[in-house]
Design goal:
single chain; alpha+beta; 5-stranded mixed beta sheet; 3-stranded antiparallel beta sheet; 6 helices; 12 strands; 30% strand; disordered N terminus
Length: 226
């Protein structure tokens, strides 16, 4: 019995894991990583390195490609105009760039359509207290609820009001804390998740120790008999 009180005392003192008290929460978190704007829709897809694109130039079959790869430097090599920076542009922006450069010297009023065949960079990492941590592909953008669902939901030791999203913004790494339970209940918005984000679901030390205590209870009963 004394052993049981010792374990429970440890549980009471252990508390919860906090990712960082310095990270923004509440309104500050949503200002940094807002939900998708219903009027403008999800964030537009931006081409990444090693993506595979299709490029079609109207009435120019020799300039039409079903697959053209973005290299590790973020560029494509296109006939007549050479290297074109593709990484970071939307397909429409890249279409406009190719149209402009072709139209300067080679083709009168070119019409170009760029599509994304496969995406190499649109992945989200889901880590921490989820049932299947891993890296998951997203099509342009997702939401926090959707990303956690892809990882088969949270574990019994998860702290759902301390879910951290890390994101690269203008070359700097930022993090923000969201309340997953409040999002599920519709009390706060569901933030938009973008390719490259990392999600970490916090761990409750109290719940973890209590779970371990329950699992060890049969062994404790055996030892107390001697």
């Amino acid at each position: 019995m004394a052993t049981g009180f010792l374990v429970l005392g440890t549980i009471a003192l252990s508390g919860c894991f906090s990712p960082s008290s310095d990270l923004p929460k509440g309104g500050d978190a949503y200002r940094l990583m807002p939900p998708a704007d219903i009027e403008r829709g999800p964030a537009q897809y931006r081409i990444g390195v090693l993506d595979v694109l299709s490029v079609r130039v109207f009435q120019e079959p020799e300039l039409t490609f079903d697959q053209i790869a973005v290299d590790a430097a973020g560029r494509i090599n296109f006939p007549f105009i050479g290297e074109v920076d593709a990484s970071g542009k939307t397909p429409v922006e890249l279409s406009d760039e190719i149209e402009y450069r072709l139209g300067q010297s080679y083709i009168r009023n070119p019409q170009v359509v760029v599509g994304v065949v496969t995406s190499a960079g649109q992945r989200v990492t889901v880590d921490g207290q989820v049932n299947q941590p891993g890296v998951y592909e997203v099509a342009g953008s997702s939401s926090l609820i959707e990303a956690v669902a892809r990882a088969q939901g949270t574990t019994e030791t998860a702290v759902e009001d301390e879910v951290v999203v890390f994101r690269q913004i203008d070359g700097e790494r930022y993090g923000a804390i969201f309340d997953l339970r409040a999002i599920r209940e519709g009390r706060v918005p569901d933030p938009e998740i973008l390719g490259g984000d990392r999600i970490v679901v916090g761990f409750s030390a109290t719940r973890g120790l209590y779970r371990d205590f329950l699992r060890a209870a049969p062994l404790l009963n055996v030892f107390t008999r001697f």
